[in-house]
Amino acid sequence: MAAIQEKRPLTPITKLLRVHAPLIAESANAGQFVIVRVRERGERIPLTITDYDRDRGLVTIVVQEVGVTTRCLGALQEGDEILDIVGPLGEAPQLQPGGHIIGVGGGYGAAALLCLMRERKEQGDRTTVIVGARHKDLLILVDELREVCDNLELCTDDGSAGFKGLVTERLQQLIDGDQSQRPDYVLAIGPMPMMRAVADTTRDTGIATQASLDPLMIDGTGMCGGCRVTIGGEVKFACVDGPFFDAHQVDFDEAVQRSKMYVKEESLAACRQSESGTG
Amino acid sequence: MPVKRSDKTPMPQRDPTGRAQDFDEVNEGYCFSHAMFEAERCLRCQDPVCMEGCPVRIPISDFVHAIAAGDLARAASILRTANPLPGICGRVCPQESQCELKCHMAKRFGPVAVGHLERFVADWERSQPVGETPPAPWQSARVAVVGSGPAGLVCAGQLARQGYPVTVYEALHAPGGVLRYGIPEFRLPNAILDWEIDALKRLGVEFVNNVIIGKTITLDNLFDRYGFAAVFIGTGAGLPKFLGIPGENLNGVYSANEFLTRINLMQAFQFPEADTPLKVGKRVAVIGSGNTAMDAVRSARRMGAEQALVVYRRSEAEMTARVEEYHHAIEEGVKFHWLTNPVEVIGDDDGWVAGLKCLRMELGEPDESGRARPVPIEGSELVFPVDNVVLSIGTTPNPLLAKTTPGLATHSWGGLVVDEKKGETSRRRVYAGGDAVTGAATVILAAGAGKSAAEAIHQDLSAGL
Ligand SMILES: Cc1cc2nc3c(=O)[nH]c(=O)nc-3n(C[C@H](O)[C@H](O)[C@H](O)COP(=O)(O)OP(=O)(O)OC[C@H]3O[C@@H](n4cnc5c(N)ncnc54)[C@H](O)[C@@H]3O)c2cc1C
Ligand SMILES: Cc1cc2nc3c(=O)[nH]c(=O)nc-3n(C[C@H](O)[C@H](O)[C@H](O)COP(=O)(O)OP(=O)(O)OC[C@H]3O[C@@H](n4cnc5c(N)ncnc54)[C@H](O)[C@@H]3O)c2cc1C
Ligand code: SF4
Ligand code: SF4
Ligand code: FES
Predict the structure, then answer these.
(1) Is the C or the N end of chain A the one with fewer CB within 10 Å?
(2) Residue B324: which residues within 8 A CB-CB, separation 6 or more?
């Protein structure tokens, strides 16, 4: 059980939760994740550790409501308890410090970049974050991100804030721009098509690029193999070997296909949920 | 006492058609008169060889005699002293290759049904009112147990009885290890496991779920920060193997661990009332021949598969599952394809499983394991049209804890190195047992290892070594 100490809506479907989980807060590193279960007979779902406060025993998660479990979680209020939370799982990304790193985020990925980028900056990296959304109201944690990076680049599809266009278009401009803007490392966290586009953008540039893969998971300890992904022809378990992998080596076709394994069941469950009106 | 030269009393079981529709237990258990009748078949041999077949040396003839004398309380206490999980082992032990194999009655009339009787006594015990509250732990040294499978549960229980405050840490959200996430309800109802765990809680054992030692808390911190005096590792052998054949990552291919975990731990058989789905098509192929394969294929039937088949590259003689499960599977309509080696999972245009391509095999010269090596028959390729493939080809110890713990030695295949006598690892005051040490084995071996480690821990702690 972990009590929700603070809840903040970021967009109509994105919520930030600060949760009392002292054991996890104590051992967490940026880039790791937790698995939560929200109710009896509920599913176990992975969520990135967006931030942690070791002194107060708090872990921050940002949840984007896309289906039954994320909606249940989003419906919880301050003071409510999350039934189960386990972590920290996975490994922090392996990138040498001491260069210019660009973090590219979409969806909940913008939140996931927060503590990663702060730590990189503390380690002496120059940090740029590129985040994108359809409209400026859907961009999340802009002020917080501005604080933890040297340069924040906003992108919107409709031009309502920052650059009008895709995050990868802006990334391309920075790569093509003068030497001071060109990254040494790129880190992509977000929807699969975005991460794939980032991988394609940097593929021929020699810029080391990592993607945070988000396959379906159950245990998160390497026991089920459900989270397997193919990296450079080798099968890896994202929950223990990842979630960060060399983006240029990822078999995205397979990853996208595997993420669709339960679309029918997911929409059936979502219909039931909205019909019954319960979280 | 009259000696009955009759056959083994059959276990009453549910009708195969009905039972293959749900996850309720297949075996119904002996009634009192069955149990009396069966107990009276025991010859009370001078040399009770049955006991030699039991890895934890249960004084079988004593407990069986107590049943025959109608003293179930005594039978229960004899059993529990030797094996703290009788209700579980009575159900899942491979008796035919252990106690019952050795029984003097085995050759002529069929062995005394030791397993069924063990189960009978344990079930009786569960129906009795709970006894007095045991005393609170009185030792000052505290012990941590990592993993709540049979090894961890038994180790915790034995230490608690010696007065140690024990904390069991479990990575998943519910305790029990394979007994919870692997072995299905139709063989081992959760209620039995829950009863055992509740009994441990009454003894003062504390259960902490959702903690992964090596991730949430390091092994070193268990000593330095949490002040435990000793640690027992019973983390099992949960890492699934894959074949490495083409098509293994297609949608609809599962490891048996994933397949069974979705069903047992996550209750996917109740989807959508439970949130976790599992997609089982009309035709399911399971690769392997152990208990896990039987559990997977029989679960597939229960999840709606009309055709459920087992594919194994060796012959029936090399099957490692309990014989009872094999027979139950056949009764439930499972088809077995021996000497059939999968070489590729074939996919459809959408990335879903469409078939399993195999080669027929024949037996050749013995291999390293002494078993005849299966060799492919040329031109024997065949394709089973299936919607799912479940891989049940073995598991190895999970490297997670060893990877994060300096100085914890492992064998090249992943098993923890322990000294034979005490079960102590390369780290002082860190003991280990069960599948984490032996690789995938049995419940009773894990339970036995937990028990002897508890004795070693008690000795070391009380000697202050
Ligand atoms: C390592 C890791 C970290 C993650 N971090 C976060 C996070 O910080 N915040 C957050 O909101 N989500 C995160 N996710 C994704 C999150 O786990 C899924 O959104 C969640 O499992 C969906 O569950 P559901 O029951 O709400 O929806 P479902 O009913 O299961 O699915 C609804 C829709 O979401 C899609 N979906 C399902 N699972 C995933 C997935 N694993 N990734 C992406 N899309 C999925 C489905 O295809 C479907 O369209 C992370 C995933 C991983 C593996
Ligand atoms: C499907 C299936 C059917 C089987 N059928 C039979 C049968 O009929 N008869 C029989 O005798 N045997 C059977 N077995 C084998 C038997 O279940 C195992 O040998 C036995 O459970 C091993 O017990 P264990 O305590 O060593 O580990 P496990 O039962 O594997 O338990 C280990 C526990 O430790 C937890 N853990 C792992 N790492 C950590 C960590 N770092 N921190 C905290 N917790 C951790 C795991 O989550 C797990 O709960 C079967 C196995 C399977 C998979
Ligand atoms: S524990 Fe297993 S081997 Fe031992 S007597 Fe019982 S059923 Fe037989
Ligand atoms: S060997 Fe068989 S008959 Fe003899 S004591 Fe053991 S169970 Fe009884
Ligand atoms: S989630 Fe089960 S192995 Fe990764």
Answers:
(1) N
(2) B96
pLDDT band at B428; cut points 50, 70, 90: very high
DSSP SS3 for A63? strand
Q: Using CA positions, which residue lies closest to atom 3 of ligand 5?
A: A222
Cα–Cα distances (Å) from A242 to A212, A245, B271, B298, B342, in that order, read 7, 6, 29, 33, 29
pLDDT of residue B282: 96
pTM here? 0.95
What is the C-alpha to C-alpha distance for residues B390 and B393, in angstroms, rounded to an integer? 9
Backbone angles phi, psi at A122, to 5 degrees: -60, -30
Closest-CA residue to A83 (of A41, A22, A32, A28): A41
Q: What stretch of H or E contains A14? A: strand A14-20
Atom of ligand 2 nearest to the CA of B188: 8
- Give the rounded percent of residues in chain B with a pLDDT score beyond 90: 91
CATH for A100-212 is: 3.40.50.80
Q: What share of chain A is helix, strand, coil (3-state, %, to 5)?
A: 30, 30, 35
Stretch (H or E) spanning A166: none
Q: What is the mean pLDDT of residues B263-283?
A: 93
Of A258-272, B57-71, B303-317, the poorest mean pLDDT is in: A258-272
B112 and B162 fall within a common domain = no
Chain B nearest CA to A14, separation (Å):
21
CB distance A131 to A145 below 8 Å: yes
Closest CA to A19 of A59, A48, A54: A59
C-beta of residue A38 within 8 angstroms of C-beta of residue A1: no
Q: How far apart are CA B88 and CA B190, in angstroms?
A: 10
CATH of A2-89, one of 2.60.40.10, 3.30.530.20, 1.20.1050.10, 2.40.30.10: 2.40.30.10
Average pLDDT over residues A38-64: 95
Closest CA to A223 of A35, A23, A29: A35
Q: Does B41 score more than 60 pLDDT?
A: yes
Measured distance CA(A159)–CA(A155) in Å, rounded: 7
CB of A4 within 8 Å of a chain B CB? The answer is: no
Decide if pLDDT at B453 tops 50.
yes
Domain assignment of residue B300, given as a range? 242-393
> Tokens at residue B53, please?
């077949």
Interface predicted TM-score of the whole assembly (ipTM), two decimals: 0.94
Backbone φ and ψ for B377, nearest 5 degrees, come out as: -90, 125
Over residues B193-210, the pLDDT tens digits come to: 999 999 999 999 999 999
Of all protein residues, the one whose alpha carbon is nearest to atom 47 of ligand 2 is: B171
Residues B110, B155 within the same domain: no
Candidates A27, A218, A254; nearest CB to B258: A218
Smallest CA–CA distance from B353 into chain A, residue:
A261
C-alpha span between B391 and B252 (Å, rounded): 11
The answer as to whether B48 is a domain residue is: yes
C-alpha B352 to ligand 1 mean position (Å):
21
